[in-house]
Amino acid sequence: MRFVHTADWQLGMTRHFLDADAQARFTDARLDAISRLGALATERSAEFVVVCGDVFEDNRLAPAVIARSLDRMATIGVPVYLLPGNHDPLDAASIYTSEVFARHRPENVVVLDSAGVHTVRPGVELLAAPWFSKHPAGDPLTEAVVAASAPEAGVIRIAVGHGGTLPVGAQDQRLIDVAELGARLDRGELRYVALGDRHSVTQVRPGVFYSGAPEVTNFDHKERDSGSVLLVDVPEDGGAAVVEPVRVGSWRFASREFPLSAERDVTAAVAALSALPDKDRTVVKVGFTGTVGLVAKAELDAELEALRARFAAVELWERKTDLAVLPGEDELESLELSGPAAAAAEELLGIARSGGERAADASGALALLYRLTRQDVVA
């Protein structure tokens, strides 16, 4: 028996660092990922798709977002099982009970709207644990697993849940008890545990997996293995499930750090960023450390501005940025300042070299002064 395990589609997601054009492309890419996983299900003869929570970004979405999402699901040629998660719980305001969802829901889409066993076909069951609020008192999956009776002999039962997992030796009733799930996997009561919540593909233990999000949602220093779905084969004879990650995402959120001390370092950093592929689908968060002169800083600022026109977005990684600008005497002299302007530049240079609280502001002011002065010269 083969199926597609996915989660955390978060349809309707927006990102503050994307302008309107890039956001539209990002939104379409999340829908395109659905189409690609549907094509995968057809190509690899999967029986169904299970989405383990957070199908939608929020319960308060525009009707058009919901309708377009369901239209994409309708193109998948097999049943699609949707589990409400913490972003889209089955509460009083739930998308899943809304008029727009009922009007546009295709026949192949099934909401796992109750805790317990749902029959896919004779011999295959989903033990589902939907979220009924954003902050449940306990863990819905562990509770559902404990409450369920053992399946009949020969039945393949897949547990479907959402949320964090309980570390070994820890105690927190809000987290999924992997030890409890593992015991039932070992006894054959469960054949696989499909989880959502982590946005990177993660094996918690044999037979227990997070699929990750099918399209990237965060930068790669936090989300290292997103953009995939899992193709899961569960042998009829009782053997262990075989899990294959398959990439369906097309975007990248790249975080990069560069130490700078000279103009050549700026050139190398810009070259590394320029080498990233698919720039219209790539967001870069970049941090710089070190000390540079006015010429190098002006070059860096100009190159970053040029890169912003090519990438979906370029963000300064403030937590990883500690770049001092200390001009040399020859750089100040090249500005050919006189009178009050020259005196102000000398004062700023002294503050920048002091390393005090105002050093960064003084460095920034000098860099701005240099750029403005050079623009005047060019003009």
UniProtKB/TrEMBL annotation:
<dbReference type="Pfam" id="PF00149">
    <property type="entry name" value="Metallophos"/>
</dbReference>
<dbReference type="GO" id="GO:0004527">
    <property type="term" value="F:exonuclease activity"/>
</dbReference>
<dbReference type="InterPro" id="IPR014577">
    <property type="entry name" value="UCP033093_metalloPase"/>
</dbReference>
<dbReference type="InterPro" id="IPR029052">
    <property type="entry name" value="Metallo-depent_PP-like"/>
</dbReference>
<dbReference type="InterPro" id="IPR041796">
    <property type="entry name" value="Mre11_N"/>
</dbReference>
<dbReference type="InterPro" id="IPR004843">
    <property type="entry name" value="Calcineurin-like_PHP"/>
</dbReference>
<keyword id="KW-0378">Hydrolase</keyword>
<protein>
    <recommendedName>
        <fullName>Nuclease SbcCD subunit D</fullName>
    </recommendedName>
</protein>
<dbReference type="InterPro" id="IPR050535">
    <property type="entry name" value="DNA_Repair-Maintenance_Comp"/>
</dbReference>
<comment type="similarity">
    <text>Belongs to the SbcD family.</text>
</comment>
<feature type="domain" description="Calcineurin-like phosphoesterase">
    <location>
        <begin position="1"/>
        <end position="103"/>
    </location>
</feature>
<keyword id="KW-0269">Exonuclease</keyword>
<keyword id="KW-0540">Nuclease</keyword>
